[in-house]
Amino acid sequence: MNLNIYSINDDIVVYTDDNGNELSSSLSFIIESQMIEYFNNDDKIRISDLYKEKYRSELTIEKGLWGGISIYKTSNTSYLSFLRCLFYMCMIISVLLAPREVSLLGMKQPGGIVFFCLSFLFINTICQSYGYDSARKTLWINALLMFLSGSLLYVSSLMPAINDDVNYQEVVFSGMIKLCFINGFCSLIADQINALVFKKVKYMTNNKALWLRSLSSTFVSQFFFTILWISFFKYENLFHIETYFFIFSNFKIKMIFAVISLPVLYFFVRYLSSRVKISKVFIN
User: Fold this and answer.
1) Among 70, 232, 246, 259, fewest CB within 10 Å belongs to which?
2) What is the CA radius of gyration of the chain?
3) Between helices 241-260 and 262-276, what is the axis angle to 10°?
């Protein structure tokens, strides 16, 4: 999934793909569609410098993990922070509500499943509008927050209580510590798969069919997440048929929510894209 600059003529970038095919796009398209994420770091900097010089528009260069960088419109930086906060909020609330059982579409589910499904919307928006490196950074921070929360809860549970609070300890501390660590581990694996699949399908479709990469990335990542998460909590009944029915129903709910949230995903992406678009009149 690599694009390499061959030449740049005014506003047109000529580049080659993995198969050696020669393609061309405008500077504005590469920036606005986030196709810039498929170039190497040197080419990313070169394209962004030319874009800023030609259109006098500020871009933010965000350092990702392990050497990657994301480039996006500076005016959209606050939206990225907001999307990240919404993602973290959904993950935290889904953990807090997990011990509660609810009936959803006639199926018994963990109480936090609705908020957990909402997190797909926010991370997919980040993947599309800010690039894979921004999404991966978001996901690693989320895992770190989960592990840190579990650790701090454990330390807090060791502090001597003034009154007898055995029941409170059982409900809050023991359950939440386990949930934080398991959710952190499962989301670290599954959400990384989500971002990778999203990036791969986006490359294969040349940034078309947003619905396809959203559903395919959710399908693959939640297949792994659901099996991992439920296996940790139902390992005693892992070979019982009821456990597999529960895995299937949980996965089914997630895919239904992924489909339902598609219009909102399109709205978010188009709104952020409209803020990136610049005048097609060249500035000399």
Assistant:
1) 259
2) 22
3) 40
Rounded average pLDDT over 166-178 = 71
Determine the pLDDT at residue 266. 93
Ramachandran class of 72: left when φ > 0, alpha when ψ lies in -120 to 50, beta otherwise: beta
Distance CA 10, CA 25 (A): 11
Give the Å distances, CA to CA, from 151 to 88, 169, 182, 208.
Answer: 17, 15, 12, 42
| pLDDT surpasses 70 at 168 | no
pTM for this one?
0.86
Q: Which residues contact 136 (CB under 8 A, 6 or more apart)?
A: 64, 65, 68, 192, 195
Write the pLDDT tens digit of every residue in 28-56. Answer: 888 888 889 999 999 999 999 988 888 88
Take residue 223 and report the two structure tokens written for it. 């297949």
213/200 Cα distance (integer angstroms) = 8
